[in-house]
Amino acid sequence: KTKNLFASLLIGLLIIAISTGCKKDTDPIETTTDISDVNDEAFAETVSDNIDNIIDEVFMDFSGYFKSGDDDGRIIGLCATITHDTILIPHLITIDFGDTNCLCRDGRYRRGMILISYFGHYADSGAMKNATSEEYFVNDNQVIFDKSITNIGRNELGNLTWEILSDGTIIFVEDKGGDFTWHSERTREWIEGEETHYRWDDVYLIRGNGNTVRPNGKSVTKEIVEPIMKKLNCRWFVSGTVKITPSNKPERLLDY
């Protein structure tokens, strides 16, 4: 009798467990295959990084950093006009891509202008640059930005490091439509290539965080979990991870 009673209780508990386990979860974990958040973030990262590279290229050119024969390692196209006003304080550099699309060496089309006011030299601790856009387009997407870059000296490893604060808007062409805005706070560490005076072997590590608002009005926050590595001889980032948290959706991990 004791064995039969125990068996009956066990069967009853199993029935209760099964019926409970089969109930629909009233608050299920969301899963999705939508990667539009990640695609927009990656595009914005590339646009912002290209601006940094263009600014660096101009300053290295004026400082004599490039060796002869380095033209294939540049981004700015031959159709762009660069002027340097050293009378103004702070000094002013204007990169004018013209009123029609200018094919640049990275395969992207640009038009409009980038204006850079600055004091100090590229590698000087405390040197500051501020870059803004004027009717600037990349592959027909208008890019409006205000970016400040401050050389904060060498870190504990002896590598030059910059603090970069950036606010911007991408107005997409009609086939995509809408505005994409961003704010970011980054540091950029120069880890390879300083001693060679050859632009195309330079390697940087990028750290920081930011937030964006996508064309559909939804906000996204992001944090660089593992530093993003940028090799200037490669159009794309080569390593690093970014945690992306869209509003009302699960976290994504963008792994380069």
Describe the protein in words:
The protein has 256 residues and is of the alpha+beta class. The protein contains 2 helices and 12 strands, in the order H-H-E-E-E-E-E-E-E-E-E-E-E-E. Strands 1, 2, 3, 4, 5, 6, 7, 8, 9, 10, 11 and 12 form a 12-stranded antiparallel β-sheet that branches. A hairpin with an 8-residue loop joins strand 4 and strand 5. The longest helix is centred in the N-terminal third of the chain and has 27 residues. The chain is globular, with a radius of gyration of 25 Å.
Secondary-structure map:
Elements: H1 2-21, H2 36-62, E1 81-85, E2 91-96, E3 102-103, E4 109-119, E5 128-138, E6 141-154, E7 160-171, E8 179-192, E9 203-213, E10 219-231, E11 239-246, E12 252-255
Antiparallel strand pairs: 1-2, 2-4, 3-4, 4-5, 5-6, 6-7, 7-8, 8-9, 9-10, 10-11, 11-12
Short description:
This protein is of the alpha+beta class and 256 residues long. The protein has 2 helices and 12 strands. Strands 1, 2, 3, 4, 5, 6, 7, 8, 9, 10, 11 and 12 form a 12-stranded antiparallel beta sheet that branches.
Which keywords apply here?
2 helices, 12-stranded antiparallel β-sheet, alpha+beta, 256 residues, disordered N terminus
Radius of gyration: 25 Å
End-to-end distance: 66 Å
Structural class: alpha+beta
Content of β-strand: 35-45%
In sequence order, what are the helices and strands, one letter per element? HHEEEEEEEEEEEE
Shape: globular
Number of helices: 2
Largest sheet: 12 strands, antiparallel
Number of strand segments = 12
Helix content: 10-25%
Poorly predicted ranges: 1-30
Compute the average pLDDT: 81
